[in-house]
Amino acid sequence: MFKGLVGLVTGGASGLGRATVEQLLKQGGRVVICDLPSSPGQETAKQLKENVAFVPIDVTSEKDVKNALQTTVDKFGRLDVVVNCAGVATATRVYNFKKEQPFDLKSFQRTIEVNLIGTFNVIRLAAGLIGKNAPDADGQRGVIINTASVAAFDGQIGQAAYSASKAGVVGMTLPIARDLAKQGIRVVTIAPGLFRTPMMEMLPEPAIKSLEATVPFPPRLGHPSEFALLVQSIIQNPMLNGETIRLDGSLRMQP
Ligand SMILES: NC(=O)C1=CN([C@@H]2O[C@H](COP(=O)(O)OP(=O)(O)OC[C@H]3O[C@@H](n4cnc5c(N)ncnc54)[C@H](O)[C@@H]3O)[C@@H](O)[C@H]2O)C=CC1
Ligand SMILES: C[C@]12CC(=O)[C@H]3[C@@H](CCC4=CC(=O)CC[C@@]43C)[C@@H]1CC[C@@H]2C(=O)C=O
Questions:
Q1: Cross-referenced Gene3D superfamilies, in alphabetical order (predicted)?
Q2: ipTM, 2 dp
Q3: Cys-Cys link to 13, which of 8, 41, 153, 172 (CB 3.0-4.6 A)?
């Protein structure tokens, strides 16, 4: 099933996205890595060698995403699977009473812009290309997988912007799955708990250790490869659609 499959992974140069790229390649797929020009996407593609290409993009740009889709067609002829992993994390309280400073609106807008609108931008443009595929025996033409966060449900102090952006991704999953159902395109979102990636490693190790202790089982950060395994499973299971799946070791984040 994966042999020859063409995937496009945003945020594919790092963390959960990179692990997904590696898993798709391991299964015999071909992959376009989409990430910021400043990311290590080019080196990543070189390291992974075959059946992979890097296209520098900002997910919020229509022009960039259209260019990435055109490159996908030029290089691999089609697109079957999109995995949206590009994202940014911010932590600011709604009001800083010591500095008498409200949350910076530009920072709130940028978080929504990248995590929510960027994800939507990729979905809306990729759907047209996936819709050109001939349907399989089940009528399926492709799969779109998004990345939210458990912060969509249990957002912590300082996560108003991040949680709102991820809740938006959760909220649009079902309506988009319904929009694309007639074309046989499935849409599923993963809401990860805590995974060891460069985003997480912005935190000092003692903070990571204490976060790990809050995960009931297994009491550790997830490995990016475990995220990639769920991506594989979603691709393989045609009954998964319009749903958000928590991948969190039963973590419920504390305030
Ligand atoms: N690591 C974790 O524990 C969790 C991560 N997530 C989400 O998973 C996704 C992947 O995160 P990680 O791999 O941990 O982070 P990461 O920081 O390792 O990777 C994120 C990638 O997104 C790219 N990116 C950022 N803004 C972009 C833009 N405008 N256009 C294109 N690419 C852009 C970055 O360059 C980076 O390569 C994110 O959406 C994050 O919010 C959700 C829950 C937990
Ligand atoms: C996003 C997430 C939770 C956070 O808010 C932190 C982030 C790692 C980097 C951070 C450093 C800080 O100093 C403040 C908090 C945060 C932005 C975490 C990575 C994954 C977490 C998440 O989405 C959990 O579901």
A1: NAD(P)-binding Rossmann-like Domain (3.40.50.720)
A2: 0.95
A3: 41
Q: Is the CB of 244 under 6 A from ligand 1?
A: no
Single pTM value for the model: 0.97
The CB of 8 under 6 Å from ligand 1? The reply is: no
Tokens representing residue 74 in the block: 């030029």
Neighbours of 161 (CB within 10 A): 25
Q: Point out the residues that are catalytic.
A: 162
Domain positions in the chain are 6-247
Q: Which atom of ligand 1 is nearest to the CA of 200?
A: 1
Specify the CATH number for 6-247; select among 2.40.50.1070, 3.40.50.720, 3.40.50.300, 3.40.50.920.
3.40.50.720
pLDDT the model gives residue 136: 96
- Are 240 and 186 within 8 A, CB to CB? yes
Which ligand ends up closest to the CA of 200?
2
Beta-sheet strand order (sheet of 52-56): 52-56, 30-35, 6-10, 81-84, 142-147, 185-192, 244-247
Token pair listed for 150: 């458990």
